[in-house]
Design a protein that fits this description.
Blueprint lengths: L23 E5 L3 H12 L3 E5 L7 H8 L4 E3 L13 E6 L4 H13 L3 E4 L12 E5 L2 E5 L6 H14 L4 H18 L6 H14 L2 H6 L2 H8 L10 H10 L15
Parallel strand pairs: 1-2, 1-4, 2-3, 4-5
Antiparallel strand pairs: 6-7
Bound molecules: ligand PQ2 and nicotinamide-adenine-dinucleotide.
Nicotinamide-adenine-dinucleotide binds next to helix 1.
C-alpha cells in the first residue's frame, strides 16, 4: 500500500509565499545586496525600515530613501533597533561578519525570523532567484548549493513560458473574485473549484488574456448549469441572444 505514497526527500526547504504586506521588516545595511532585498520587500508591500550609515549607501537604496519608499536611520545597527514588537523579519546585508553574528543572536533571543546574507547557518530562510510577471512569481532555490545556478535555472524557466502568462493569471483572478460573488456559499465550494479548474484547462491562454469584464459576466452564467463554453461560444451566443443576463446572478436563460 505505502508504495503509492511519495517518497520523503529530506534536505529541502519549505517553500512558501510569505505575506509581509503592511508588516514591519528591518533591513540592516545599505549596499548592493540590501538594494535587492529592499526591492523584493517593497514588491510584497512590506513596511521597510533601513538602518545603514549614509556614506555606504548604494545609489538604488539612496533612491528608495529619497522617495520615502522606506523609513531610514542614518547610523549603524543598535540592539534597541529590535525592541519594536511589530518587527516580523530582519534581513542583514552588511560587510561585517561579527556584527552579523551579534544581530543573528539577538534576533534568536527575540524569536524574530532572520536572514544573514551569505551565512547559511544564520538564516531562518534563504532567498531564491525569482521570476515575476504580474501576479505570477516563480522562485528557484538550490538549497545553498549554487546561487548562480538558481539564477541560470530561473532564466531558463522564464524563457520557456508562453508570453502573457501573467496577464492570463490576472484575468483568472478577476473571474474567481466575480464567481465568489455569484456563488458565495460554502456549500458551493467544491463545484466552484471544479468549474474554475475546467475554465483554466479548457480555455487557451490567448482567450483568457482577451476575456473582458462582459465576457466574464457572460461566462459566469454558465456556472449554475455547470457548463464551460469557449470564448467564441460566449461571444456568438451573445449575438444570437443565447446567453441572456436577466439581472439575477446564478442562472442562465436560454432562449
Ligand atoms: C539566489 C540569490 C537570491 C538573493 O540573494 O537575492 C542568492 N544568492 C544570489 C547570488 C549570489 N550569491 C553569491 C554569488 C557568487 C557566486 C557563488 O558563490 O555561487 C551569487 C551570484 C551572483 O551574484 O550573481 C555568493 C554566496 N551566496 C551565499 C554564499 C554563502 C555560502 O554558500 O556559504 C555565497 C558565497 C560567498 C563566498 O564565497 O564568500 C548564500 C546564499 N545565497 C542565497 C541566495 C541563498 C541560497 C540560494 C540557493 O542556493 O538557491 C543563501 C544560502 C543565503 C541567502 O543569502 O539567502 C541570488 C541570485 C539572484 C538572482 O540573480 O536571480
Ligand atoms: N546572498 C547574496 O546574494 C550575496 C551576494 C553578494 C554578496 N553577499 C554578501 O552580503 C553582504 C553585503 O554585500 P554588499 O555587496 O551589499 O556589501 P556592501 O559593502 O556594498 O554594503 C554593506 C553595507 O552595510 C553597511 N554596514 C556595515 N556595517 C553596518 C552596521 N553595523 N550597521 C548597519 N549598516 C552597516 C555599510 O555601510 C554598507 O552600506 C556581504 O557579506 C557579502 O559577502 C551576498
Amino acid at each position: 500500500m505505502s508504495e503509492s505514497f511519495p517518497e520523503i526527500q529530506g534536505g529541502g526547504s519549505l517553500i512558501l509565499a510569505w505575506q509581509v504586506r503592511n508588516k514591519k521588516v528591518l533591513v540592516i545595511g545599505g549596499g548592493e545586496v540590501a538594494a535587492g532585498r529592499i526591492l523584493n520587500l517593497l514588491n510584497a508591500d512590506a513596511k521597510v525600515t533601513v538602518i545603514s550609515p549614509r556614506d555606504g549607501l548604494n545609489p538604488e537604496v539612496a533612491h528608495r530613501i529619497e522617495r520615502k519608499q522606506v523609513e531610514y536611520h542614518d547610523r549603524r545597527f543598535e540592539p534597541s533597533d529590535l525592541d519594536d514588537p511589530h518587527i516580523t523579519m530582519v534581513l542583514t546585508a552588511i560587510d561585517d561578519p561579527e556584527a552579523s553574528t551579534t544581530i543573528w543572536k539577538l534576533c534568536k533571543e527575540r524569536k524574530i525570523a532572520a536572514n544573514i546574507a551569505d551565512v547559511p547557518p544564520e538564516c531562518d530562510f534563504y532567498f531564491g532567484s525569482v521570476h515575476r510577471d504580474g501576479p505570477l512569481q516563480i522562485m528557484v532555490s538550490t538549497n545553498g548549493n549554487g546561487p548562480k545556478m538558481a539564477n541560470i535555472v530561473r532564466r531558463r524557466i522564464a524563457a520557456s513560458l508562453p508570453p502573457k502568462m501573467g496577464d492570463a493569471i490576472s484575468k483568472v483572478g478577476e473571474l474567481r473574485k466575480r464567481l465568489r460573488k455569484v456563488a458565495p456559499g460554502n456549500d458551493e465550494g467544491p463545484k466552484r473549484m471544479q468549474w474554475m479548474s475546467k475554465v483554466c484547462v479548457q480555455w487557451t491562454l490567448e482567450d483568457l488574456c482577451e476575456m473582458d469584464e462582459r465576457d466574464m459576466d457572460d461566462l459566469l452564467q454558465s456556472f449554475a448549469p455547470d457548463k464551460v463554453p469557449s470564448l467564441e461560444q460566449i461571444r456568438l451566443g451573445e449575438e444570437s441572444g443565447e446567453y441572456h443576463f436577466d439581472g439575477s446572478f446564478g442562472w442562465a436563460c436560454v432562449v
